[in-house]
TrEMBL record, chain A:
This protein's UniProt keywords: Signal
PROSITE patterns named in the record: PROKAR_LIPOPROTEIN
Main subcellular location: other
Species whose genome carries this gene: Fodinibius salsisoli
Subcellular localization(s) per the UniProt record: Cell envelope
Pfam families per the UniProt record, alphabetical: Peptidase_M75 (PF09375)
Domain Imelysin-like intervals: 50-347
Record protein name field: Imelysin family protein
Domain of life: Bacteria
From TrEMBL, chain B:
Source organism per UniProt: Fodinibius salsisoli
Domain of life where this protein originates: Bacteria
Entries under InterPro entries matching the protein: HTTM-like, HTTM_dom, VKG_COase, VKGC_lumenal_dom
Alphabetically ordered keywords of this record: Disulfide bond, Lyase, Membrane, Transmembrane, Transmembrane helix
Protein name: HTTM domain-containing protein
Intracellular or extracellular location(s): Endomembrane system
């Protein structure tokens, strides 16, 4: 028996070495293997998707802050419109980074700080009135960030003249202006913290060899988990499902749309879906093609699945495109297309949450645990 | 037969087994606590997936849970030291098993294994040498015990390995190298062996080697000439699984437990080393060899009868339980009826996305439950592939909506499940109102069958 075991063992060892040397000879194999594709994908994602998206977002946030300063110095309808336009640009740029909530973005609560909606208008007015508040505290989560800026700059059914008056003629004009500027600084600080961290070491860590696997804590594991979590809770539900009433016993909540006061919720959702697709296909921020999750699946022999995901993503896009901004009006007048869009978004979710992660060997769990 | 049951043999292997098991349980408990899992798994969730018939097993709240885990750790320590062993071995078994019964989400074969081993340890005089109990009361000291006290562990371990091997003898594992074909390439970045996993044959090699290992390792361990080589294989196999998979303490538990197959002389040497080491540390010198009395373990006739009955029933169940799946229709991996408690370890890659569709007939409104509002990500993940959990959560939602004033909500489920590279399909019949379905062990007629001819994603399959 000893002899038999030794023999089997040596035979296995020798045959594996032989097989390796014969396979190692052809370089087509090594170019295409899953480990190389995975590291190519991580590199493309870190350097050509996440980094430029973050930098573009920071640029927009900086411009937003400047537009705010201009408005504070010289409040006219023109500077107000500039500020409103820049808010929209910034919120569009946000759609390309919101799906990367891991690392510093997660620890400083970038998403919760910048984009908790719907805005709590009572809390906002209370804060302005009191003049004493801590942005970033739990009680002020819905009274800070982009949705709050949307409320402050667009108001409810108000003309720009009326809004201008609130910052120039109203009794609390100075307080309101200060709240506006404090919010702009708040967002700018959080943003620069997150983007600097990525530029300094997070981007490198992301590509570190020790994070190259697929288990919990690996770069791919983090990325896919963040992507799926964002897609499920903040794109499918937050931007479409919740306002359409899917989570509130079927009763629509039009005021719960992302840009309720700005009225461009559908545009934001489309941008976010586009960012999701780019992450999947590996398309860089400038639109150039590269290695993505799609190529990862292909390398593992699952071309059909990656094709299906792209088809479903495109169908979800078409369904969103049938919706009219402002989304709140669409929901009130004709909610059915919104519900259809929700279902289309859900089709993608099934494929990325169940099939894609399963094929990639990534565990969808945001907590560490043992298996058996 | 006599030889394996009542003949008297050295107590040494049993004592070493007790010490090592207590030690590894202590380490596991500390690790569990330090990772914050007591909070994550037993305090944070709002809802727990109880076992059918064990609904009374509920978490004990924050302080209750921390206390329970403290008792588990303390019991493990006392078992290791052999301090008031009878009390603490029973406490360990009860507390550990209680914790495991709280939530199905956390079911792991190795937790089940720990429960069983601690159950068996509770029945044997493993504390009657090399223990604080013997120091306190030297008359307890035994040199010999009946062979069954040691052989039950060999048999139990043998069953675990053998059934794990038997479970691997299925077409997916043997003919398609699944799920290893999915899991191994995910590890292709590893140094030394990672390159192997790029090649499909390595998945086959590992699948077949794994099945061969599980089915035969016990025999190689029992047979003296192959024992050392087999133990090296045990270490290699379990370390490999440790590095490849997120499998926690299990590899180390098995590496230590399989030492029971070694001879009494081997274990006696371990004990002597330990004693020498201790005397060296304590700066005391004592004659080691004279410490043993010649008393043999002699339980009363009644005790013998009770023990024999309990053990016979236990092992009959151990052999039957893994086969209970034969009583159910359908594909075992798909329906998971009779899947747990059968040593089916790392056997399939399954994932899912479950959508709960709620309908209120009174208002004619439809909506979907946000699973993540009620469940932890881990619970959601485990539930997505296991029908009994899907049903339990439907009932939980029914109660939740009834509390909200909806008299008779109807709840249907779209449970998309992907199994071993097969394209996702619906596990549960989406037309069945799950609020009308009862829990239990009867076949789940409300599941869709698994169809072998269904579409397949993988071009490699």
């Amino acid at each position: 028996m000893t002899f038999f075991e030794r023999f089997t063992f040596s035979a296995l060892l020798i045959s594996s070495v032989l097989l390796f040397s014969s396979c190692g000879g052809t370089d087509s194999d090594t170019d295409n293997n899953s480990s190389t594709v995975r590291s190519d994908m991580l590199e493309q994602t870190a350097n050509n998707i996440i980094l430029p998206s973050y930098q573009a977002f920071r640029t927009e946030v900086t411009s937003l802050k400047e537009a705010g300063d201009n408005f504070a110095e010289n409040a006219t309808e023109e500077t107000l419109t500039d500020l409103q336009d820049q808010l929209k640009n910034t919120r569009l740029a946000w759609q390309h980074v919101s799906l990367f909530q891991f690392g510093t973005a997660k620890t400083v609560l970038l998403r919760t700080s910048a984009n908790t909606f719907p805005a709590d208008t009572d809390q906002i007015e209370d804060n302005i009135d009191a003049g004493d508040y801590t942005l970033g505290s739990i009680s002020n989560q819905a009274a800070a960030g982009f949705p709050t800026l949307g409320y402050l700059l667009h108001g409810q059914d108000e003309t720009n003249q009326q809004i201008l008056a609130a910052y120039t003629e109203a009794e609390d004009a100075q307080k309101r202006l200060k709240y506006l500027q404090d919010n702009l600084s708040f967002i700018a600080n959080k943003t620069s913290e997150v983007v600097s961290a990525w530029e300094e070491n997070e981007g490198q860590n992301f590509l570190n060899a020790e994070n190259a696997g697929t288990d919990t804590g690996s770069s791919l594991g983090m990325l896919v988990n963040a992507m799926v979590r964002h897609y499920e809770r903040f794109l499918r539900d937050g931007k479409v499902g919740i306002p359409a009433g899917v989570r509130s016993a079927g009763v629509p909540r039009p005021t719960a749309t992302e840009a309720y006061y700005g009225g461009y919720s559908v545009e934001l959702a489309l941008a976010n879906l586009e960012a999701t697709k780019r992450l999947f296909t590996g398309a860089g921020y400038d639109g150039s093609s590269g290695t993505g999750l799609e190529e990862n699946l292909d390398a593992l022999g699952h071309e059909e699945l990656s094709d299906d995901i792209i088809t479903e993503l495109d169908q979800a896009k078409s369904a969103l495109e049938t919706l009219q901004d402002p989304l709140s009006t669409q929901i009130e007048s004709n909610n059915d297309p919104v519900l259809t869009a929700f279902q289309e978004l859900q089709q993608v979710l099934t494929l990325i949450k169940a099939d894609m992660t399963s094929r990639l060997g990534v565990t969808i769990t945001y907590q560490d645990n043992d298996g058996d | 037969m006599q030889k394996y049951i009542s003949s008297h043999i050295s107590i040494a292997p049993l004592v070493v087994f007790r010490v090592l098991f207590g030690f590894i349980m202590l380490v596991s408990t500390i690790r569990f606590a330090f990772r914050g899992w007591i909070y994550e798994l037993y305090i944070k969730p709002d809802f727990f997936f109880t076992y059918y018939g064990f609904d009374w097993v509920q978490p004990l709240g924050e302080w209750g849970m921390y206390t329970l885990f403290f008792v588990i750790g303390l019991s493990a320590l006392c078992m290791m030291l052999g301090y008031r062993y009878r009390l603490f071995s029973v406490l360990f078994f009860l507390c550990f098993t209680y914790v495991e019964l709280i939530d199905k989400t956390n079911y792991l074969n190795h937790y089940y294994f720990v429960s069983i081993i601690s159950f068996l340890l509770m029945l044997v005089p493993a504390h009657r040498n090399f223990s604080l109990d013997v120091v306190r009361n030297p008359s307890l000291r035994l040199q010999k015990v009946p062979a069954w006290t040691i052989n039950i562990f060999k048999l139990q371990l043998g069953l675990v390995y053998f059934f794990a091997g038997l479970a691997k003898l299925n077409p997916d594992w043997m003919l398609h190298a699944l799920p290893l074909k999915i899991w191994l390439p995910a590890q292709s970045h590893l140094p030394l062996i990672g390159w192997l996993f790029e090649y499909e044959w390595s998945a086959f090699l590992f699948s077949w080697a794994g099945a061969f290992y599980d089915l035969t390792i016990v025999f190689f361990l029992l047979y003296k000439p192959t024992r050392w080589l087999a133990y090296i294989a045990v270490i290699a196999f379990h370390l490999m699984t440790y590095f490849l998979f997120q499998i926690g303490m299990f590899p180390f538990i098995m590496i230590l437990c399989t030492l029971i197959y070694f001879s009494a002389e081997f274990h006696q040497r371990l004990i002597d080393w330990a004693k020498k080491g201790w005397h060296f540390v304590a700066r005391r010198s004592k004659q080691v060899s004279n410490e043993y009395s010649t008393f043999a373990y002699q339980p009363s006739r009644l005790t013998k009868k009770v023990l024999a009955t309990v053990l016979v029933i236990h092992f009959i169940l151990q052999v039957l339980i893994p086969f209970r799946f034969l009583l159910y229709p359908g594909h075992l991996f798909w329906t998971e009826q009779g899947y747990r408690f059968s040593w089916r370890v790392m056997l399939m890659e399954k994932a899912g996305h479950t959508i709960y569709e709620v309908y209120n007939p009174e208002t004619d409104r439809r909506w979907e439950a946000a699973n993540y509002d009620f469940l932890t990500p881990n619970q959601e993940k485990m539930m997505a592939t296991q029908p009994d959990m899907i049903l339990q959560f439907a009932h939980y939602l029914e109660n939740y909506y009834q509390d909200k004033g909806i008299k008779d909500p109807e709840i249907r489920v779209k449970a998309h499940v992907t199994l071993n590279n097969h394209k996702n399909k619906l596990l549960v019949d989406p037309s069945v109102d799950l609020t009308k379905v009862k829990r239990g062990f009867t076949p789940k007629y409300w599941l869709n069958p698994f169809n072998d001819n269904q579409e397949n994603w993988s071009t490699r399959n």
